[in-house]
Amino acid sequence: MRIDILTVLPELLKSPFEHSIMKRAQEKGLLEVQVHPLRKWAVNEYGQVDDYQYGGGAGMVMMCEPLVKAIEELSKERKYDEIIYLTPDGEKLDQKMSNTLSLKENLLMICGHYKGIDERIREHFVTKEISIGDYVLSGGELAAAVLVDSIGRLLPGVLNDETSALFDSFQDNLLAPPVYTRPEDFRGWKVPSILMSGDHKKIEEWRHEQSLQRTQDRRPDILDQL
Ligand code: ADE
User: Fold this and answer.
1) What pLDDT digit, counting tens, does each position of 68-87 carry?
2) Which of 18-23's residues contact partners 24+ apart within 8 Å by CB, and which partners?
3) Which of 97, 115, 137, 147 to mutate to test the pocket of ligand 1 (most atoms within 8 A of CB)?
4) Partner of 70 for a Cys bridge, out of 27, 41, 85, 180, CB 3.0 to 4.6 A?
């Protein structure tokens, strides 16, 4: 999968993809992430990409021209399956959406800043608007990093144990069960004995029960979707 990201703050998006699973995904050639500084398509030599909003009011708006130039130039190289705008008023990201997006070939993500991007870009170019939650970030960059991470780890071959993403929280509308590692007894707090029994069938049943219980206790709303 190839993901292009348009941003006024490319520095913010360097580190998130240089470690751990995202790094490995890129090294294995399963994921390619390219971050493009929007100022490359600025309207003047001062690097301007935003302007005052019509009708007055505080806050700048990201202009049409740099965004259109960037989108059109990048679209000459590849056909995007989705042009995504990260915005708090978008559709809320969940595991199902990440699963669906992980099946795409080429994604273009636009990070908003200030008051956001000119509405005409949303109308004429953006195909999907995504929010990572009901809170407002200073810009779309951290949201894009979250989105890339949640999609990237689902690409076949990215995780070491191919099946492990299947058991993530939310994958079956269930939260993941509790997990334990050594020592068996830490300060008198013991690991549930079933996990030491070696009975894999019983362990699976126990894990499923724990998942159900945990979901019931913490997120009954997602249980209703079963
Ligand atoms: N930009 C600012 N806040 C955001 C959010 N919650 N989700 C996606 N993009 C954003």
Assistant:
1) 999 999 999 999 999 999 99
2) 21/149, 21/152, 21/153, 21/158, 21/159, 22/148, 22/149, 22/152, 22/153
3) 137
4) 41
**What are φ and ψ of residue 185, in 5° steps?**
-130, 115
Note the pTM of the prediction, 2 decimals. Answer: 0.95
Q: State which ligand 1 atom lies nearest to the alpha carbon of 132.
A: 7
Domains of the chain (ranges; CATH) run 2-152 (3.40.1280.10), 169-223 (1.10.1270.20)
Tens digit of each residue's pLDDT (9 = 90 or more) over 102-159: 999 999 999 998 799 999 999 999 999 999 999 999 999 999 999 999 999 999 999 9
Residues 6+ apart with CB under 8 A from 99: 154
Spell out which residues line ligand 1, taking CB within 6 angstroms: 86-88, 112, 131-133, 135-137, 140, 143
Q: Which amino acid is at 63?
A: M
H or E element at residue 124: helix 119-124
